[in-house]
Amino acid sequence: MIIKEDLEIKNYTTYKIGGKVKKVYFPETQAEFTELLRTLKNYIVLGSCSNVIISSNGYSGNIILTTKLNQFEIRGTKVFASCGVKGPLIAQKTCDAGLSGFEFMIGFPGSIGGDVSMNAGAHGQTISDNLISCCVFNKKTKEIEYKTHQEMNFSYRNSLLHSGEYILLYAEFDLKKAPVEEIKNLIARNLEFRKNVQPSLACPNAGSVFKNPQNDSAGRLLDKAGVKTFENANVKVWENHANFIVNKGDASSEDVLELMVRMFNAVKEQYTIELEPEVIFIGDKTKKEEELCNILYKKKQR
Ligand SMILES: Cc1cc2nc3c(=O)[nH]c(=O)nc-3n(C[C@H](O)[C@H](O)[C@H](O)COP(=O)(O)OP(=O)(O)OC[C@H]3O[C@@H](n4cnc5c(N)ncnc54)[C@H](O)[C@@H]3O)c2cc1C
Fold it and tell me: What pLDDT sits at residue 299?
């Protein structure tokens, strides 16, 4: 297994932000992965790092990146996918197999682990729609357990994994049979739609910054609050959609948090609504980051 010390993590993230991490592990088999989970004292498991802001100040703990845990199997309508499998790849493979249900995953880079943790969704589909069960590692007991769909406690951008007590090893799905042409058309429609409402990864970003409040859209509120013109030297709100922050090239985690606080305050002042961040902050905070996170993250972070 590859282990990198003092790794500059930014190039592994879609924001292209993040300082040095003490140790980063890249397990290649489930056996290596569970051995790490059993033996390491403190660690954070990440997949494609497409929903995180990692502190430019770095992280003095361990990060386990699941990118090499990319095995999957399609058996009839069943799909078994390890936590590191990338959404766009499995969307393509299940399309080829005439299986419908993963078309929404084509347009964003999440891994199965991140997608299940976040209960990722788009275009009216979510990862939990077709999920049958999960094989997880229980951090407290250090045992492997199987969780049913119901036990995964899925809700909007939330699941049992979000508490940090369980790590996804792999998940089982049951998709629906459909003509390949139909699935291909839906995938093409999803990709076309995204072109206009989402920055491509050529403009480093981490997807939606804030979650939608109940019965409303964070993008709509942010737009009405006039944030589309907000920017500083290194980051800006994306001009086509107010719920995206783009790294202009050399942004730090502090730059992103500062802009997030400006966006948060603009909506709070106009609508008395406190938006909840969808992106997760990770790493050793500077004093300034501590202050900014205290404003943004009211719910306990892991
Ligand atoms: C251009 C772009 C578009 C996007 N569009 C969408 C969209 O339409 N819909 C949407 O829902 N999201 C979207 N996102 C956000 C992001 O891709 C999703 O949240 C995705 O599910 C995150 O997966 P990841 O592997 O990158 O997770 P990471 O960012 O690596 O981690 C996110 C969280 O998941 C946890 N996690 C990761 N792997 C595991 C595991 N094996 N076990 C337990 N916990 C784990 C991490 O600890 C962390 O808390 C977009 C992002 C980008 C950059």
Answer: 66
Model confidence at 197, in pLDDT bands (50, 70, 90)? confident
Q: How distant is the alpha carbon of residue 90 from its chain centre?
A: 16
Query: Is 38 noted as a catalytic residue in this protein?
Result: no
263 CB contacts (<8 Å, ≥6 apart)?
Answer: 209, 210, 222, 225, 227, 230, 237, 242, 275
The fold of the 218-296 domain, in CATH, is 3.90.78
Pairing, β 245-247 against β 235-237: antiparallel
Task: Tell me which of 111, 117, 128, 157 is the catalytic residue.
Answer: 157
CA of 187 to the centre of ligand 1 (A): 19
**Would the pTM count as exceeding 0.90?**
yes
**Which fold does the domain 72-195 belong to in CATH?**
3.30.465
Distance CA(151)–CA(135), nearest Å, equals 12
Instruction: For residue 110, give the amino acid letter.
Output: G
**Active-site pick, 208, 252, 253, 254:** 208
- The domain limits of the chain are 2-65, 72-195, 218-296
pLDDT tens per residue across span 134-185: 999 999 999 999 999 999 999 999 999 988 899 999 999 999 999 999 999 9
Domain 72-195 in the same topology as domain 2-65: no
What CA–CA distance (Å, rounded) separates 208 from 276? Answer: 11
Q: Minimum mean pLDDT among 192-196, 223-227, 239-243: which range?
A: 192-196
> Class of the 2-65 domain?
alpha beta
Question: What pLDDT, in 10s, does the model give residues 228-250?
Answer: 999 998 999 999 999 999 999 99
CA 228/CA 236 separation, integer angstroms: 8
